[in-house]
Design goal:
This is Methyltransferase domain-containing protein. With 310 residues, this protein is an alpha/beta fold. The chain has ten helices and ten strands. Strands 1, 2, 3, 4, 5, 6, 7, 8, 9 and 10 form a ten-stranded mixed sheet that branches.
């Protein structure tokens, strides 16, 4: 959701205490669901297209705390250099803290390269596996000057539904000119299914999807239209495109995750709904949260992973 949705005054009931999305806490909660949702076959198809016998160069747009790296890197040939770009210095600052336990779980060591606290080296006993360059950059400033020279892969996760059609078109053109395959993970497609069903589910999610098309910093966001528009953009440039579903399936064990997402849906819906619907939305939120607390709640959210290549 946008910053506006996070900051909007909530309607009465059930919405107090929401944690803003895109915080480290939220990213931690969603990472296991993201990882479980990733389509194995499409990731394998990506890996098969990567060069071997030399170092691999990757640009990760909107990297957050590095979840996309942690999900993809083990499936790609090593060694790898990742240029991790984000506009949030707090997320970039947290990224090394998330990389260290991930690396150590695989028997690897992490250090700052030559004392430079913008470059991480993740090493095995005899050679480095991953070199991670941290770059503070506001991608909304333009897609025309992305650092793509000599890059083997451009990737992102949970980003493409936030950008505008114009930004996406320029980004796709830059990627095609660079000749680097493009992998976008976890792009929202507008599908949300709740268990148990509530009479207001359809109304609330329709409002959420309308809100998703608001300005998220790049101009009018693509929102749920992003998967199709992204595929069309690369097709129009003559590239092959493959997609696979990467839906979240949040079961009764994901209480905190569901609470945060339901709260955020209610806030977003109330922000653009007529004022006479605020009480109904708040009541919907209360019913949903009670179902989650009782262990009856399940939430499925539609996403798409896309691979584009020459």
């Amino acid at each position: 959701m946008s910053a506006a949705a996070m900051d909007a005054a909530p309607p009465a009931g059930g919405l107090a205490g929401i944690d803003p999305l895109f915080t480290t806490d939220w990213l931690t909660l969603r990472e296991p669901l993201d990882r479980a949702a990733r389509p194995v076959a499409l990731v394998q198809r990506l890996a098969e297209r990567m060069p071997r016998g030399r170092g691999l160069s990757v640009v990760d747009m909107g990297c957050g705390t590095g979840s996309n790296l942690r999900a993809l890197a083990p499936h790609l040939p090593v060694p790898q250099t990742w240029r991790c770009i984000d506009r949030d210095p707090l997320l970039l600052r947290e990224l090394p803290n998330r990389i260290r336990p991930w690396a150590e779980a695989d028997g690897l060591a992490m250090r700052w390269e030559d004392g430079d606290e913008t470059i991480l080296a993740v090493e095995g006993p005899d050679h480095y596996r991953y070199r991670i360059e941290l770059e503070l950059r506001d991608l909304s400033a333009g897609a025309d000057d992305l650092p793509l020279d000599g890059v083997d892969l451009v990737t992102c996760a949970a980003l493409m539904d936030l950008v505008s059609a114009g930004w996406l078109t320029r980004m796709a053109r830059a990627v095609v000119e660079a000749g680097a395959p493009f992998y976008a993970a976890l792009t929202y497609n507008g599908m949300v299914d709740f268990t148990p069903v509530d009479p207001l589910d359809e109304e609330v999610i329709a409002l959420v999807n309308l809100h998703q098309r608001g300005d998220k910093g790049f101009g009018a966001a693509l929102g749920p239209d992003a998967p199709q528009i992204m595929a069309d953009a690369f097709h129009a440039l003559g590239w092959q495109v493959a997609t696979e579903p990467s839906d979240w399936d949040a079961g009764p064990e994901t209480v905190r995750f569901q609470r945060l997402l339901i709260d955020d849906y209610a806030r977003a819906a109330a922000e653009i709904a007529p004022s006479d619907r605020h009480d109904a939305i708040a009541a919907w939120c209360d019913r949903r949260l009670k179902a989650v607390e009782r262990g009856h709640g399940r939430l499925q959210v539609g996403h798409v992973d896309l691979l584009a290549h020459p």
